[in-house]
């Protein structure tokens, strides 16, 4: 199984991209992991939030392949502890044949089309983070999960 993190818009702040790069590198030791960035769309200023989300949805669907298992990162999704998330990833390795795709929405979230297409929603907290910050939190949690599954002394209960 390959894990893909699909994000809307490039990471603009270097302090986020450096951390994302660091954890993405560390992840290579355990799994096949990639982060794909949907490029920022042009001329969005004149569009309503809903119109922007529809345009982002068009781009999201272009990246998807048949057989992808889609998990939206969403503050209203199901919450896991880090240990539970590690077990979740372990379970998915047995049942997802190709790509486990986690998606971070744009600044205004996802369109209803994307919600309908998704298999699940996972929340990383009840609080809302910026679409830039959540990608960094996710890669650290995925790395933490891999260290838990490999009994490495990174996570402490
Ligand atoms: C600024 S948030 C948008 C939230 C906004 N309430 C909405 O849905 O319109 C941008 C994206 O970051 C991600 N995100 C933010 N907080 C999150 C959380 N606590 N757990 C999981 N994903 C989160 C989601 O993918 C969300 O679509």
What does this structure look like?
Helix content is 42%, strand content 22%. It has 157 residues and is of the alpha/beta class. It has a single domain (2-149), classed as SPOUT methyltransferase, trefoil knot domain (Alpha/beta knot), CATH 3.40.1280.10. Strands 2-1-4-3-5 form a five-stranded parallel beta sheet. Helix 1 packs parallel to helix 5 and helix 3 (82-95) packs across helix 5. The chain is globular and about 50 Å long. Bound molecules: S-adenosylmethionine (SAM). Specifically methylates the pseudouridine at position 1915 (m3Psi1915) in 23S rRNA. InterPro entries: Alpha/beta_knot_MTases, RlmH-like, tRNA_m1G_MTases_N.
What are the salient characteristics of this protein?
single chain; 157 residues; alpha/beta; Alpha/beta knot; five-stranded parallel sheet; 5 helices; 5 strands; 42% helix; globular; binds S-adenosylmethionine
Q: Approximately how much helix is present in the residues?
A: 40-55%
What is the class in the CATH system? Alpha Beta
Number of domains: 1
Mean pLDDT rating: 96
What's the SSE pattern? EHEHEHEHEH
Hey, roughly how much beta strand do the residues contain?
15-25%
Gyration radius (Cα, Å) is 15 Å
Largest sheet, in brief, is: 5 strands, parallel
CATH architecture: 3-Layer(aba) Sandwich
The CATH topology comes to: Alpha/beta knot
Contiguous low-pLDDT stretches (5 residues minimum) are none
Bound molecules: S-adenosylmethionine
Q: What is the number of strand segments?
A: 5
Keywords: Cytoplasm, Methyltransferase, rRNA processing, S-adenosyl-L-methionine, Transferase
Family: Belongs to the RNA methyltransferase RlmH family.
GO molecular function: rRNA (pseudouridine-N3-)-methyltransferase activity
Subcellular location: Cytoplasm
């Amino acid at each position: 199984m390959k894990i893909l993190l699909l994000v809307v818009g490039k990471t603009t702040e270097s302090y986020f991209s450096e951390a994302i790069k660091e954890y993405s590198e560390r992840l290579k030791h355990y799994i096949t992991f990639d982060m794909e960035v949907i490029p920022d769309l042009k001329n969005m200023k004149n569009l309503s939030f809903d119109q922007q989300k529809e345009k982002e949805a068009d781009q999201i669907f272009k990246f998807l392949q048949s057989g992808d298992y889609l998990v939206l990162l969403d503050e209203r999704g199901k919450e896991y502890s880090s240990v539970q998330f590690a077990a979740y990833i372990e379970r998915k390795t047995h049942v997802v044949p190709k790509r486990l795709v986690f998606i971070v929405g744009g600044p205004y979230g996802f369109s209803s089309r994307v919600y309908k297409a998704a298999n699940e929603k996972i929340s990383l907290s009840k609080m809302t983070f910026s679409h830039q910050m959540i990608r960094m939190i996710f890669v650290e949690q995925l790395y933490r999960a891999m260290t838990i599954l490999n009994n490495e002394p990174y996570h402490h209960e």
